[in-house]
Specification:
single chain, 265 residues, alpha/beta, Rossmann fold, 2 domains, 6-stranded mixed β-sheet, 6-stranded parallel β-sheet, 33% helix, 20% strand, binds 2'-monophosphoadenosine-5'-diphosphate, NADP binding, Shikm_DH/Glu-tRNA_Rdtase, amino-acid biosynthesis, shikimate dehydrogenase (NADP(+))
Length: 265
Amino acid sequence: MTEITGRTAIWGILADPIHHVKTPQALNSLMQERGVDGVLIPFHVGADDLTALVSGLKAMRNLKGFVVTVPHKTAIVDLCDDVSKQARAIGAVNTVRREADGRLVGEMLDGAGFVAGLRENGIEPRGRRIYLAGAGGAANAIAFALAEAGVSLLTIANRTLSKSEDLRQRLAENHPSVPVEIGTGDPSGHEIVVNATSLGLKEGDPLPLDVTRLTPDQTVAEIIMQPEVTALMAAARERGCRTHPGRPMLACQLELMAEFMEMRP
Ligand code: ATR
């Protein structure tokens, strides 16, 4: 870390619990590599104190922004002065920039990180038919980023149907030109298959979709980072599919966060 002086800019991350977060290490090394005179500090805050902390952060003139993670991504939306249309529709914010006048501007970069990760790996979602397993927090962000990328069809398949319906409704309101369908466990007929459920995180989890329907022309993408090769990825490879792991989403997202929070020399 560079020497902290009176000129050093401050960024933060808000979480509860906080001890496991890796963002401080990742973004502090990024700043060091780029010669940014700044530091990102973990702020451990519970839900009951979020409003008080955020009002304090607005007053802190050397604070440039902060990352927001579990469990605050939804509650932070109403505490920002300005939120992107996309983050508003998703109902969650994970990165906040503090403007010079103290205004807090919120954005949701989970989905953009996923799409950037795909592209970095040479997989272009524009014009493609996408099968998306899940309709939770991560799936919402990814669905909006895929719609933004201009996919030709988005099929949402989730265990709880009402959540798929709700996501489809919000996508229709915000991206009326993107066809959205509700799917079953069968991913056939889609060029890119995405697992955005939490299935695969724990050993013994059921597979998020019917892998017997996968064909070698399909690409199967994960959001699960650990294990690096999930049971879904292993099954997809066995069926001749190309696979895309969960990790690039994180690396790309850190880059987008640094850009949004203006972490520059
Ligand atoms: P995250 O923020 O990581 O997306 P989440 O919002 O809790 O977490 O979403 C978890 C996703 O995994 C949801 O799509 C969830 O399905 P439901 O909406 O039906 O709960 C899905 N999921 C988790 N456990 C599952 C299981 N055993 N079978 C099928 N889907 C599951």
